[in-house]
Amino acid sequence: MMHYLKFTFVTTAILLVVASTIAAAEPADTNYDEKKVPPYELPKLLIDKAGQSVGRSEWDSHRRAEILHLFEESVYGKTPKRQLSVRYEVIDSDANAFNGRATRQQIAAFFGEKQYRIDILLYIPNKTKGPVPAFLGMNFYGNHTIHSDPKIIQRGKKKARGSFSKRWQAELIIDHGYALATIHRDQVDPDNYRNGFTDGIHPLFYANGQKKPKPDEWGSIGAWAWSLSRVLDYLETNKQVNASHVAVIGHSRLGKTALWAGAQDPRFAMVISNNSGCGGAALYRRCYGERIHHMFKPLGYWFCTNHRQYQKKEHELPVDQHMLLALIAPRPLYVASATADRWADPKGEFLAAKHASPVYDLFDTSSLSGHEMPKPDQPIHSTIGYHLRTGKHDMTAYDWRQYIKFANRFLKQE
């Protein structure tokens, strides 16, 4: 009898843990029913604060800046204007990576008086002439996880070496003539709030006595985006990389980051969002899948504190994500979704890209204006690219083949 009771207790405990995990992943009020998407009206892209219609010149002169400011105030927070001193130290350079097909470089970047360190991992193809275009993205669990290369410096032991190599496809990228640069998100700002904003780069910018960002100042996404621009700074000093042909890329929350980095920094020649969902490429006002209040309960530190006031009030936001995507125009933009990733709202991601099209049309580029949402695995490669991949929330070889093909058109102009 005691054995039975013990078994029952353990089994019940396991079920409760599983149930709580599922509930944490997908809260009870998550909507996956298109019939329950509320009626909504998107903020106007091409009507400025004064209520005037906007053309190409007005977009360049003030409307783009208006929208960027609204995102700073209500979503991601303001990025500090102050520049830190930086020192780069190449701590590893090996031309025999990937069986001689690539040169691996590892660069330590030291910022500010405190010499805050961020490690850059860079692979450059050997069989190319002149500076090469590049993909730049942030990784989740450490540079050593993107490939099994034993020479990659390992900082932290949370994940095994090469454990996310399928997500990165480093050798495929190299074999197509692109460099690949990456940094670890937690070196910039740890993806948790256990220590507040005290254990990442934020304190380097605090005023005297400040202990956390102000309500309209940057959260983690802002900090991560800042760091991607700092890696681009380094690439501009590397003669083997064509820094004017760099695509910034990210998956999931780091897809949100790539979009915000690309919106703020026009030096990025291309922006790629992979399954970025709410706060990324998906429309807030659809209230489908992940929503603001879902993110804020465990992950509010991603955004500025001001964003909190729009929980369950998405319709009151002065912006929506089609406006974020429009900030990237006229540069090439790629948005990707996955069929099983309802949490990220694939339809909302596509619609945001489609509703960003009027700004791309101002620049006479090929947009998604005339397109309907494609069937799975049928990519659209206009200046705004889109695909819906069969499968789950991930970044796969299929995704990378599309991004490389897209980049061939715009970064290599093949």
Automatic annotation (TrEMBL):
4-O-methyl-glucuronoyl methylesterase-like domain boundaries: 216-362
GO MF annotation terms: carboxylic ester hydrolase activity
Record carries keyword Hydrolase: yes
Signal peptide (UniProt feature, chain positions): 1-25
This protein's record includes keyword Thylakoid: no
SUPFAM superfamilies, alphabetized: alpha/beta-Hydrolases
InterPro entries according to UniProt: AB_hydrolase_fold, FrsA_esterase, GCE-like_dom
One Pfam family recorded for the sequence: GCE_fung
Alphabetical UniProt keywords: Hydrolase, Serine esterase, Signal
Highest taxon of source: Bacteria
Protein name (record): Multidomain esterase
Protein species of origin: Pontiella desulfatans
Record gene name: cesA
